[in-house]
Specification:
Layout (H helix, E strand, L loop, with lengths): L4 E6 L8 E6 L4 E5 L10 H8 L3 E5 L18 H14 L6 E6 L1 H11 L3 E7 L7 H21 L3 H5 L2 H8 L11 H8 L1
Parallel strand pairs: 3-4, 3-5, 5-6
Antiparallel strand pairs: 1-2, 2-4
């Protein structure tokens, strides 16, 4: 069966940010949560096979992709992001618990959802949060450096990311095999 695509955006109660999402496929729902620096489009390479078995809900966490940030004054940690995802699941009337797949930060959020009893099954791909102090500091420096570089290069990103070698070099800290990513996907991933 071919995967159907239904791109929509959802709005929560006043206290929560809306979560942009796409749905793909038919069947029992499964929630897909991207990693730090990613967005729901990052699931594109695996959506077709997943959508043959489930209705996949690929979401943008608050502050990523097309989802606005968490409300002012809210610390953007895995618990707060899980709060937003929990509200999204309730609003969409998705069954609870449900299967959740998360990558990196999304894996950390998925594990938090499981701790709350909201996930029937978690596939956490390289989940964040399991760092010792040295790794935490290193990760913090790398992420801050990447964020500064991204802000400076943003106006030039479309031209730079169309070149395979530059795509590989610029995106290496955040993703493997960036050189093999279509330029349009790389540009969308850094916007």
């Amino acid at each position: 069966m071919a995967a159907s695509i239904d791109a929509t955006q959802s709005t929560h109660a006043r206290r929560a940010a809306p979560l942009a999402h796409d749905t793909h496929g038919d069947g029992a729902p499964a929630l897909l949560i991207h990693g730090l620096g990613g967005e729901r489009g990052g699931w594109k390479p695996v959506l077709a096979p997943l959508a043959r078995h489930a209705r996949c809900w690929a979401i943008d966490l608050p502050g990523f992709g097309d989802s606005p940030p968490l409300p002012p004054g809210t610390e953007p940690g895995p618990r707060q992001l899980a709060d937003a995802v929990e509200r999204f699941v309730a609003e969409q009337r998705l069954p609870r618990p449900l299967p959740v797949v998360g990558h990196s930060l999304g894996g950390w959020v998925a594990l938090e959802l499981a701790r709350r009893g909201l996930a029937s099954l978690v596939t956490a791909l390289a989940p964040g949060g399991f760092w010792n102090e040295i790794e935490r500091r290193y990760t913090s420096v790398v992420l801050r450096t990447c964020a500064r570089l991204a802000r400076r290069l943003e106006p030039h990103a479309p031209a730079l990311l169309r070149r395979r070698a530059l795509r590989a070099a610029l995106l290496a800290p955040m993703m493997a095999r960036a050189a093999h990513m279509p330029p349009e996907d790389a540009i969308a991933a850094v916007r």
